[in-house]
Amino acid sequence: MKFFIDTADVKEIREAASYGLLDGVTTNPTLIARTGKPFHTVIKEICEVVDGPISAEVTSIDFEGMKREAGELAEIHENIVVKIPLIMEGLKCVRWCFENNIDTNVTLCFSPTQALLAAKAGATYISPFVGRLDDISHEGMDLVAQIIEIYNAYDYETEVLVASVRHPLHVVEAARMGADVCTMPFSVINQLVKHPLTDLGLAKFMEDWKKVPK
Ligand code: E4P
C-alpha cells in the first residue's frame, strides 16, 4: 500500500519524507489555506520535496473553469495530480483530463455509485472520505470495501485512495482490504510506529546494556 501524506505543511512533508516511506502528497483548499501562502507557491515547494504524485485541487465548480485550472496545475510539474470534486461537472473534467493525459484524484467520494462513475470517467485515483462518514455514524471503511469489490469485478484501473483518515485503525483496515493508497495526516503517520511494549522493551535493553562490562 502506498503512503501519502495529507497536508500542505512543507515542514511536515519534509520530515515525513525523511522517513523514506512517503510515496506522495494530497492537499485540499482547507489545508492550503492553513499555510497562509499562495496556492501555486505551496504546490511548487511540495513538488521540490517529494518525487511522487502531488494532488492539487481545482476550486472552480463548472466544467470550463475546472478544465482551465486543471491545465494550469498540470503545467506546474509532471507529478501533479489534479484533484476534482465528485459532481457531474467534475466528472466531465475527469474525462477531459483522461483524454489529455492529466492524472486526476476524484475527491469527496461518499458512495459506491460516485466511485463507479469516477472509474468510468477515467479517474487515476478515487478518494473515499472514511473519517467524515464515521463522523455521521456511517462505517467509512464499508464504502472502501464496496469500491474495491466493484473495481475488482470490472478490472477498473482507478486506484483506491483512502482519505479522511483519522487514526491507525483506518490504516490497518485499508491495508487489509488491499487499498492502493492511504493518505494520512502527519500525526497518524507517526502513530503507526508506536507501541508501549516496544518502548518498555527498549528501555530494559538500554538499562541492561549498562551492566555489560565494556
Ligand atoms: C484527502 O484527499 C482529503 O483532503 C482529506 O483526507 C480530508 O480529510 P478530513 O476529512 O480530515 O478533512
How would you characterize the overall build of this protein?
This protein has helices at 10-18, 29-35, 39-49, 63-76, 88-99, 112-121, 130-135, 140-154, 168-177, 186-191, 196-209, and strands spanning 2-6, 24-26, 54-57, 80-85, 104-109, 125-128, 159-162, 181-184. The protein is of the alpha/beta class. It has one domain (2-209): TIM Barrel (Alpha-Beta Barrel). Strands 1-2-3-4-5-6-7-8 form an eight-stranded parallel barrel, surrounded by six helices. The longest helix is centred in the C-terminal third of the chain and has 15 residues, at 140-154. The relative contact order is 0.13. Erythose-4-phosphate binds at residues 6, 26, 28, 107, 127, 129, 131-132, 163-164, 183.
